[in-house]
């Protein structure tokens, strides 16, 4: 049998016939008592020793107890002084106290115990000692002396001393160890010391050697060297979270070109061609020929929508509409271009209500670069197509969406967009700062948008910058640190993952 | 979004609510959709709002909306107008690019400083919005008493001014803020305002000009003459607007007339004599649109009483008559200052605002659909997860880049037959030399990240799955777009093998067959470069970056890299 070194030592020091205490074993093995205790328990678990536990009481004199053991109990000193002064007659209290050289609280202690223990009585300021009393036979004094000498005393008198706070009592467990038959057998068959090892090796595992080794202890609290693994980009994590929520709410993801005709980006959206957002200042036009393949009937319907409006009472914009401009290709300023493509039936065929679609993809806008604005950012875009949707449905949908990000108390501020009516800016309470913050733009697509696309029912839509959600939810203050070639690798490496 | 400066004292006076505190006004204005943005130096509120209600571009319009909100005014009101005394004759030589004109005479104006400031602000704000920076419509306001009208004919007792076109140097006048007699062409070169708006007319063969009997007094859309300048002493005004669309300038004119009428002025019509016929302006005709009770209830999601709906219309400054039939339909009258009502649904929005959208109880729509990710996005996500598992830091870079970064610094040529060598998708008018095209491959972005992070700990194993594009006229959008998987391993002992090992694992994860026949690419070391061939198709490149490219990016250690089309993992 192979056992760890400490267990081998304890086993050898133990006896089958005599109980050995932990303290004795520690002395015999030259190990620390804690180590011996640990080894003893392991040996007992292996059935090699038995352990008996007895509770012993330690009695310790208090400081006051030690003082009285040395100087005598105050009541005895008082009695002896009274006998010395009066020889058994009544004596003046002051005189006795002076003679006894008791002081402070000891006087009261002496007086209260003097009568209780029959050393005499007190009468009109005079102390009357009982000449027959025998201070040398005082049980408490004897017990004090015995305790001071390390001897044991009777429980009754111990209780008395404890009540006078002259002693304190502690309990402690004494463990005594005896070898079992198995222990004796093991010793007779021979117990070897197992080696301690640093590393567990493949050889130890295959040979079974691991059973006989003891592993050296590590400082498990010490710092470990830094390890770097890969991590999904924080903005991708945020996008994943948004996609999870939307898919859970029944939305399907859209996909489509980043470079697209203005027709899909703006004209379908009923954005007048002379709208300020469509000037060359806000738009990234591409130096490529115009798009040729756009359904002609759709172009006609969109043109008519712009020029004449939709329905008997509809009016168009009083703005020119040029097909050339509509066919010009640019980088999309919003992913609503995808919504237009899907709603038109161009992407996945004619859509019958109900439908829910979303996209979390990049859009391009010529904005001033600053900590919160980039030329490219991710737009969360979503829409619901159904018969007879109301503003209340829109509100309920957004409350649900934002609640997944801890944003509550959604407020709907009436707003204007050329492509939705009614339109709302969405505000919500920041989960940490409790501030009212803008969290999106929404509305019901206008009939001027839907009818040319061939959609006869209602569609409600909303949009929001993903970066805005990231910054609001996770406290980034400069988006350039994470998005783009100026990103800081340390920041990316240290960024917490989203839960 | 437009911002209008409004003096709270003026607001108190014009609404008749002297008791309202500034704070109360702010709340009331927010409810209207006018957001308090701050205060100007002279104490005016700066109010921002959506560009639909352009009739609120002055304190008079804001006050009118408040009066409806407070219930002090109801329904549609139209200012009384007097019969025309003045005519605007449109000459046949008027520039064909800017053929339309409208106007009004305004009498009995009491212009104190505040009122004059407000008028000037309204003019400027209308220019900036509806007027599309004066291109679509430009307003000129003149002191009527300084004009001397031509007598039109023997039958007519009235006066006339003429809207015409002249040669760029065909006449001279003294423009506002100037002391010199200048020709219109000289104004465009020498006068501050002239230079600012020169682009609007410089291509015209003939410049727009307005004459009275005395001579040229206005050069729209650029600047008025000094002779007719409006001051606080002006009591009678001539308002003219020229532009490219009659409706637009008529509505701009209406907004100005309503603002002046709100200060007690009287509006007098003018005749506009086009070659094809004469029209009388301003056009205060009240238009109507029809909307059903049912549609209003559906959009708002609440049940409403008919009387209640009519009340909400009137509180919005509209009038409504119910037409009972199979379904109740309202004929809604719309005042002539409204420029935002294109469709009956715009009227439902007004009802909703008057009702209070925030009074509506949200409800989750009872509509069942099944959601799913797009195939492409799932694939991209799976590949990204695999790369992260291989220890790569996932990066996110811009799609826009410069030609220098995309080609030159990687030592490749545009239009060459190598990965990344596609023709550039160029931005027509780039605003920054750093962003002139869409990147045609991802490795330039990753190399730039390495370049910007030389002070950070190595190894730097970076990956990105991202959008790339190059010009391709065969595509409908003229742009070929794809997603590429790219990775760099920047470490002191990086080799081809490190890159290939990870590439192989990735391919293995996706169950595709990888071959790496030797190839050449200017960005990579010859003899240590291979094509990425997946399932028999050449889709990318793997190798060690060429030292010239490494040094160009200020790096001091080897870089192994690969890039290929994500679609190959499908």
From TrEMBL, chain A:
InterPro entries listed in its UniProt record: aa-tRNA-synth_II, aa-tRNA-synth_II/BPL/LPL, Phe-tRNA-synth_IIc_asu, Phe_tRNA_ligase_alpha_bac/arc, Phenylalanyl-tRNA_Synthase, WH-like_DNA-bd_sf, WH_DNA-bd_sf
Domain of life: Archaea
Annotated GO biological process: phenylalanyl-tRNA aminoacylation
Gene3D superfamilies listed in its UniProt record: Bira Bifunctional Protein, Domain 2 (3.30.930.10), Winged helix-like DNA-binding domain superfamily/Winged helix DNA-binding domain (1.10.10.10)
Keyword field contains tRNA-binding: no
Domain spans labelled Aminoacyl-transfer RNA synthetases class-II family profile: 242-494
Catalytic function, reaction form: tRNA(Phe) + L-phenylalanine + ATP = L-phenylalanyl-tRNA(Phe) + AMP + diphosphate + H(+)
EC number: 6.1.1.20
Keywords: Aminoacyl-tRNA synthetase, ATP-binding, Cytoplasm, Ligase, Magnesium, Metal-binding, Nucleotide-binding, Protein biosynthesis
GO molecular function annotation: ATP binding; magnesium ion binding; phenylalanine-tRNA ligase activity; tRNA binding
Binding site for Mg(2+): 421
Entry binding sites for L-phenylalanine: 336, 379-381, 419, 445
A GO CC term assigned to this protein in UniProt: cytoplasm
One Pfam family linked to the record: tRNA-synt_2d
Cofactor: binding comment: Binds 2 magnesium ions per tetramer.
Record PROSITE patterns: AA_TRNA_LIGASE_II (PS50862)
Cofactor requirements of the protein: Mg(2+)
Location(s) in or outside the cell: Cytoplasm
Family: Belongs to the class-II aminoacyl-tRNA synthetase family. Phe-tRNA synthetase alpha subunit type 2 subfamily.
HAMAP family: Phe_tRNA_synth_alpha2
Subunit text: Tetramer of two alpha and two beta subunits.
Protein name: Phenylalanine--tRNA ligase alpha subunit
From TrEMBL, chain B:
Disordered: region residues: 1-20
An MF annotation (GO) of this entry: RNA binding
Cofactor (UniProt): Mg(2+)
Residues the entry annotates as binding Mg(2+): 340, 346, 349-350
Boundaries of every B5 domain copy: 284-362
PROSITE patterns (alphabetical): B5
GO cellular-component term (any): phenylalanine-tRNA ligase complex
Catalytic activity entry: tRNA(Phe) + L-phenylalanine + ATP = L-phenylalanyl-tRNA(Phe) + AMP + diphosphate + H(+)
Biased composition (Basic and acidic residues): 9-20
Keyword Transcription: no
SMART domains: B3_4, B5
Record's subunit section: Tetramer of two alpha and two beta subunits.
PANTHER family referenced in this protein's UniProt entry, alphabetically: PHENYLALANINE--TRNA LIGASE BETA SUBUNIT, PHENYLALANYL-TRNA SYNTHETASE BETA CHAIN AND LEUCINE-RICH REPEAT-CONTAINING PROTEIN 47
Family: Belongs to the phenylalanyl-tRNA synthetase beta subunit family. Type 2 subfamily.
Name recorded for this polypeptide: Phenylalanine--tRNA ligase beta subunit
Source species of the chain: Haloferax elongans ATCC BAA-1513
